[in-house]
Structures are given as structure tokens and as C-alpha cells.
Amino acid sequence: MAQSDHDAELAYMADPSKCPFCGNDDLGWEAIDAAAPLRAICSVYCEQCGAKWMEIYKMTAVTIEQEGRVSQQIIKAMRDRK
Predict the structure, then answer these.
(1) Which pLDDT score is estimated for 72?
(2) 21 C-beta neighbours (distance < 10 Å), count
(3) Which of 1, 19, 33, 75 could make a disulfide contact with 46, Cβ separation 3.0–4.6 Å?
(4) Which of 61, 59, 53 is nearest to 10 (CA)?
(5) How far apart are CA 13 and CA 17, in angstroms?
(6) Beta bridge partners of 55
(7) Is 62:74 a contact under the CB 8 Å cutoff?
(8) Among candidates 32, 59, 35, which has minimal Cα distance to 44?
(9) Which long-range contacts (CB under 8 A, 24 or more apart) does 55-61 make?
(10) pLDDT tens-place string over residues 20-36
(11) What predicted TM-score, i.e. pTM, was given to this entire model?
(12) Domain boundaries, the chain
């Protein structure tokens, strides 16, 4: 699979359902740690080869629900960003 850490990162971003080192899909996740107000980190590990890495989440949007409906302005803004 991956030849370097950078290759592993690219492989995982392309398919986060598989280990970027051995390709196995038997992954485990630990609790998400809110490292900063707009960011969270989740430790991930492969049950097959024992590799470990972190997923880093960054808040990129917020949706406001009113009476069970998501704001249509937020949805439109997210579509326009693509």
C-alpha cells in the first residue's frame, strides 16, 4: 500500500474506509477530542496491521434548524461554494 506517510495520507483521504497502510477495512476509532473551538481530532487504528493515525475535523459550516427544517439559506450557500 502506502510507501510514505504522505502516500498514506493521500490514500486515506481517497478512501477513509480502509487502512492506508495495509488496505484492510477493519478499523477502530477512539473518542473524538475537541482540541480547539473549531477543530476536533479522532484517533483511528487498524485492527489488522496495528497502524495508528489521526483524523482531523475542521468546522466548515453550521446549519440552523427551525422546527425541524434546515435553513435553506445555509444549504444554498454550501452548494454555491462547490
Answers:
(1) 63
(2) 20
(3) 19
(4) 53
(5) 9
(6) 42
(7) yes
(8) 32
(9) 55/16, 55/29, 57/32
(10) 999 999 999 987 887 67
(11) 0.65
(12) 5-81
**Is-contact 18 25, C-beta < 8 A?**
yes
DSSP H or E stretch at residue 78: helix 72-81
Average pLDDT value for residue range 29-46: 84
Cα–Cα distance between 31 and 20 in angstroms, integer? 20
- Please provide the DSSP assignment of 1-29 as one string: --SSHHHHHHHHHH-TTS-TTT----EEE
CA 39: distance to chain centroid?
11
Amino acid identity of residue 17, one-letter, is S
At 19 the pLDDT is 94
pLDDT digits (tens, 9 = 90+) for 46-81: 999 999 999 988 888 877 777 666 666 666 666 776
Cα gap 25→64, rounded to integer Å: 34
Calculate the alpha carbon distances from 50 to 2, 7, 32, 70 in Å.
15, 18, 19, 40
